[in-house]
Amino acid sequence: MSNRILFFLRLLVLIQFLGYAAKLDGPSALNSFLLVSMGDPFVSIFDRAVQVFIWFACTALLIFGIVNPSVHSMARRIDFSILGLFTLWSFSVAILSWIINPGNPFHATDPAGHAVRFAAPLALLLLTAFPEKGNIRRVEWLLRWGVAGTFVGHGLCALWLKPSFVDLIIGTMNLFLGDPVFTAVSFQDLEEALTIAASRQAFAESALPIIAIQDFILVALLLLPGKRIKTIALWMAVWGFVTATSRMTAYGWDHWHDLALRICNGGVPLFLWAHWNSLESKKISS
What we know:
Number of helices: 13
Order of helices and strands: HHHHHHHHHHHHH
Radius of gyration: 21 Å
Helix content: over 70%
Largest sheet: none
Structural class: mainly alpha
Shape: globular
Number of strands: 0
């Protein structure tokens, strides 16, 4: 696998964890889990310490990606350790998000919905530490399953009409088409605005099950054994970036960290597409 494609995966992991760091300005899932037993002062300090660590760790990962030290060097061992901790953190956040919200069907999908977030740093660790050809194929399937888990998790939330997903569609429509309630200046305008708002709500609720079916079909095609369907990976990349960007189009640019946190939703399918393209190019040239 080319260094350029590997560096792209490294950038995805960096951006994702800058999103994690920004989200730590509020309580983390681990914070909520430890709050009762450890108390607020401890868990708040812990969140801040993790945030600072992520900032320094992301800087180190960028430097190691540029310098590209040897596998057996101390720098590379630090690189591996950071990637291992990043994998553990993203996996723990997904599990704890489920645990601290018992009975919530939407949070119950988090271990699957966040799969690509912990698959990405783990894949980068494995590809850097063990670049053998056979390992590359296994890591490819790790990423395929990570993407599949994320699309299944989000597909289930869409099928069950998760309220925040409805808000994403309505908020994005309001950005591009205008918010009818906000711009109403008279009682008659307000009546018409409420009718438009209701129609957008209905559209969002009718669109989400269709989106869910699309997600499930894409997963089935991505996981076909012995097949590398580049157009599927490319469409999943486009759709992943669109849905991640909707956090900003619906809620505003100050929610950039929600996009950063979900950058792998589209970035990892794009990584697979680029990897498959490079394999095809090598076959043609040989």
